[in-house]
Amino acid sequence: MARPRTPIGTFGDISYVKASGNQVRARTRYRDDDGRVRRVSATGLTKREAERNLKKVLAERSSYRAIGELTANSSFSTLVEVWLADLDLEGRLAPSTRALYERNMRQLVLPVFEGYSLREITVSKVDRFLKALAANKSYSMAKQARTVLSLAFGLAVRYDAIEKNPVRDTARLRKPPSQAMALSAGQVEAIRVAVRSWRRSPGHSGPPPDGQLEQIIEVMLGTSARIG
Questions:
Q1: SS3 breakdown of the chain: % helix, strand, coil, rounded to 5?
Q2: For the segment 157-171, what is each residue's pLDDT rounded down to a tens digit?
Q3: What ranges do the domains of the chain cover?
Q4: Measured between alpha carbons, how far is 154 from 51 in angstroms, rounded to an integer?
């Protein structure tokens, strides 16, 4: 039978040879995600240390499919700049939305994650960040931060810099219950008085109001319609 092919992302047997400085070199063959098998090695003072160093090198090995400016070792700050440039390149967002995304990223997210590389940002880190933001600031801020984080990491996945978007597996943000507010009878009457007297006192130039505002308010009060 033919020897089974090494699965992508795994390595074969480890061999050891003497290296300079009385060190030991641990070597193995690793199959990268482009399908090719490459030799990877690391040294240490003992076989055990060399093996540990080799496995660390393999764990931190960047994807051979990673393209452009992004790899798993890229900083989060680099991802932000590439993501913003990609938004401008696509040109699908309204200028106000584009500005909102950048503001949320730079003010809410970047100060927390700028010290990490992409491989170091895990689901648990993102989950804790979003929960803390919702608890200490607001649900709205946490929701906006989640949106821009997911979009940026989505780009990193498309660039093959990381395997999956860490935002997708975070806990769902729960909107806190809100209490409905209603006007009292006295407040309603105060609004009616204010509308009836608006721009009808002496000294105002131009024609007086035509009464439509009072009618609109009465319709809204009678039907419980909301401005939204």
A1: 50, 10, 40
A2: 998 889 899 999 999
A3: 15-59, 76-158, 182-194+209-228
A4: 34
Q: Which residues contact 75 (CB under 8 A, 6 or more apart)?
A: 114, 116, 117, 118
Q: Give the pLDDT band of residue 197 (cuts 50, 70, 90).
A: confident
* 54: amino acid identity, one letter: L
Q: Which of 69, 64, 67 is nearest to 8 (CA)?
A: 64
**Spatial distance between the Cα atoms of 178 and 201, rounded to a whole number of angstroms:** 40
Report pTM: 0.58
pLDDT in tens, 84-102: 999 998 888 999 999 999 9
AA letter at 219:
V
pLDDT, tens digit (0-9, with 9 covering 90-100), for 34-79: 778 888 899 999 999 999 999 998 887 765 555 556 888 899 999 9
- Distance from C-alpha of 228 to C-alpha of 225, rounded to nearest angstrom: 9
Beta strand extents in 58-123 (DSSP E only): none
CATH 1.10.150, applies to 76-158: yes
18 within 8 A of 47, measured Cβ to Cβ: no
